[in-house]
Write a structure and sequence with these properties.
By secondary structure, this protein is α/β, with parallel strands linked by helices. Strands 1-2-10-7-8-9 form a 6-stranded mixed beta sheet, with helices on both faces. It has a 4-stranded parallel beta sheet with strand order 5-4-3-6, sandwiched between helices. Strand 3, helix 4 and strand 4 form a beta-alpha-beta unit. The chain is globular. The structure holds pyridoxal-5'-phosphate.
C-alpha cells in the first residue's frame, strides 16, 4: 500500500477541491428497486467549479504546470466538456489563464448546446475559447493546441498543454489511483465497481490503484465514446503508461479489463430513450442528477448489466458518480424531442 501512496506523493498537486474523501452513500430506494446493494461514490461533489472526476485529474496537471512555471493552460475537448469547465475554474482559483479548444464532436447547431451548460460556465470562469472543427481527430486537436501554445509563447506567456490523445504521461489518471486508496479507506467489502470509460484516466487509474493496493474487486467500465473492442486496448495502454509514470510494475492484466458498450448508441454525446429513463430513475428515486454524456450512460449501462445478470441478485455495487451535471442544461432541447 505504502509503495503506491509514497510514489503518488512525489508528484506535485494543486489544492483544488474539497478535502478528501468524497461521500460514499447507499442508494436505498434504487437498491430496493434493482434487487442489489447499490452505493454511490459521490465524485460529483469534489468541490471545484461544480465538481466531477476531472477535479481529481486536474490537481495533478495544475500541480505540474505550476511546478514548471506556467502561467497559461491549454486544453481541448467536446463543446460540452466538463474537463474544460473544471480547468477554467482551476485557472480562476490559481490565477493562471485558461485557453479552451471546443471540438465539434457532436453535430449540432442547437444554440443551447453551443452556448449553455458548461460553455456558459467556461465564460463565467473567464476562460478564452476557440473552436476546432474536426471532433474525431485527436492528434489534430493536440497539434492545434501546440500551435496555439506557440502563439502564446511568442506573446511572452509560459503555456502548459493538457494533451488529449494517448502517448502522453497520464498525469490525470494518478487522481484515480488516489481515489482507489481513498475508497479502500472507506469500505473493504467485496464490491463490483461501475465507472465511465472515456479517455480511460478514471477507469485506468481506479483499476491500477485497486490492484496495486491488493484489491481484486471487479471494475466494470462503461463505454461513453468508443466501442468495447476499441476501448480494451486503450485501457490496457493507459494502465501500462501509469506504471511507467509511477515507475511501478503494471498490476493490471489485459484479461482483467472489462468494458461494456450496451448504452453507447447512438454515439458519443447523443441521447436515447434508455438514457433518458436511466437519468429519470436516478433523479426520481434518489434525488441525484446525472448527465446525458457520461454518468447517465454509465447508469443506463449498469441497468443493462443488471438485466443481463452480469450483476447478480444482491450484489454490492459502487456506482462512481463522476459528475457532469451542468451538461444536462445544454441538452434540454434534445431531451424534449425524446422524453
Ligand atoms: C462527468 C464525466 N464523467 C466521466 C468522464 C470520463 O472520464 P475519463 O475521461 O477519465 O475516462 C468524463 C470525461 O470527460 C466526464 O466529464
Amino acid at each position: 500500500m505504502r509503495d503506491l501512496i509514497d510514489r503518488l506523493a512525489t508528484f506535485p498537486q494543486a489544492a483544488l477541491g474539497h478535502a478528501a474523501p468524497t461521500p460514499l452513500e447507499r442508494a436505498n430506494r434504487l437498491s430496493d428497486q434493482l434487487g442489489i446493494d447499490l452505493w454511490l461514490k459521490r465524485d460529483d461533489v469534489t468541490g471545484l467549479g461544480m465538481g466531477g472526476n476531472k477535479v481529481r485529474q486536474l490537481a495533478f496537471y495544475f500541480g505540474d504546470a505550476i511546478a514548471k512555471g506556467a502561467d497559461a493552460v491549454l486544453i481541448t475537448g467536446a463543446v460540452q466538456s466538463n474537463f474544460m469547465r473544471t480547468a477554467a475554474a482551476a485557472g480562476a482559483k490559481l490565477g493562471l489563464s485558461v485557453h479552451l479548444q471546443l471540438e465539434e464532436r457532436v453535430p449540432s447547431n442547437d444554440p443551447l448546446y453551443n452556448t449553455g451548460g458548461n460553455v456558459f460556465l467556461d465564460d463565467l470562469f473567464g476562460a478564452e475559447r476557440r473552436s476546432y472543427p474536426a471532433g474525431e481527430d485527436e492528434a489534430g486537436a493536440d497539434r492545434a493546441l501546440v500551435k496555439w501554445a506557440e502563439e502564446l509563447q511568442a506573446a511572452g506567456r509560459k503555456p502548459y498543454i493538457i494533451p488529449l490523445g494517448p502517448g502522453h504521461p497520464p498525469l490525470g489518471a494518478l487522481g484515480y489511483c488516489m481515489a482507489a486508496a481513498e475508497y479502500l479507506e472507506q469500505a473493504q467489502e467485496h464490491t463490483v465497481h461501475v465507472v465511465a470509460s472515456g479517455s480511460g484516466a478514471s477507469h485506468g487509474g481506479l483499476m491500477f490503484g485497486l490492484r496495486a493496493l491488493g484489491c481484486q474487486d471487479p471494475v466494470l467500465g462503461i463505454c461513453v465514446r468508443r466501442s468495447a473492442g476499441e476501448q480494451i486496448p486503450r485501457l490496457f495502454d493507459r494502465c501500462r503508461e501509469i506504471g511507467e509514470l509511477l515507475d511501478m510494475e503494471n498490476p493490471v492484466h489485459e484479461d482483467d479489463i472489462a468494458v461494456f458498450d450496451d448504452s453507447l448508441a447512438p454515439g458519443y454525446g447523443q441521447m436515447s430513450q434508455p438514457l433518458v429513463e436511466a437519468i429519470q430513475m436516478m433523479a426520481r428515486l434518489e434525488g441525484v442528477v446525472l448527465d446525458p454524456v457520461y454518468t447517465g450512460k454509465v447508469f443506463a449501462g449498469l441497468l443493462a448489466l443488471r438485466r443481463r445478470y452480469i450483476i447478480p441478485d444482491g450484489e454490492r455495487v459502487v456506482f462512481w458518480h463522476t459528475g457532469g451535471g451542468p451538461g444536462l442544461f445544454a441538452y434540454q432541447n434534445f431531451w424534449e424531442r425524446i422524453a
